[in-house]
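Re: the 268-residue chain
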Amino acid sequence: MYTEIVTRLRDAGCVFAEDEAQLLISAARTAAELAAMVDQRAAGLPLEHVIGWAEFCGLRIEVDTGVFVPRKRTEFLARQGVALAWSGAVVVDLCCGSGALGTVLAAALERIELHAADIDPSAVKCARRNMAAAGGHVYEGDLYEALPIALQGRIDVLVANTPYVPTDVMGLLPPEARIHEARVALDGGKDGLDIQRRLAAAAPLWLAPGGHLLVEASERQAPQTVEIFASVGLIPRVARSDELDATVVIGTRPALQMTLENFTGHLL
């Protein structure tokens, strides 16, 4: 059976046919279910949608059909977020998809106050399941509009895997993404940075003093993202992982440095 499945998957173009065959066999509860799952995968349905979960930073993240599948390179964004957060921090995962980033931060840190939002109802349902154990609050809506206004000025770490594929490039994406994932999770507008611009524009209002906004971008886009962050008053820097071919741009809201004495002197 295993050999037959491997051959079927390899003929369908699956590069890691052996590994996928093992996952399908372990996930199936009956022979009929296994046959159906192999048919789905051979037809091009992403493996994660077939088995219902994706491995991300060592965690099993539930991924429903049609929901954006967290990529291996995005683990770098998760690690950068973990490095900047702390126990008790207010953490927000925007454009959260399955909620993979927020779930990883909650697993790595103790007692964070976790919030997340996505415009896609299917993603919101999925994220709520993944974040339930951490007590995460997941909202449906467009970026900050979905968040409680009480979070303004309180967010310590805001992670966002925004869509950043330029519209003209969408047709070049692998069929697994182009056909089976929501376009709203991929298409970032003409230059791929439309959502990042909107995210950065309101970030100073929502971040706490010294708070951080982290986004994933392509290496080519990073200089533009740096300019976007700087234009709204964030202090930008770029982190890069050659191993994962991942680029993260971090924008920090300046901490309040004016002391009461300086403030009084300024008024005088």
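DSSP finds eleven helices and nine strands in the chain.
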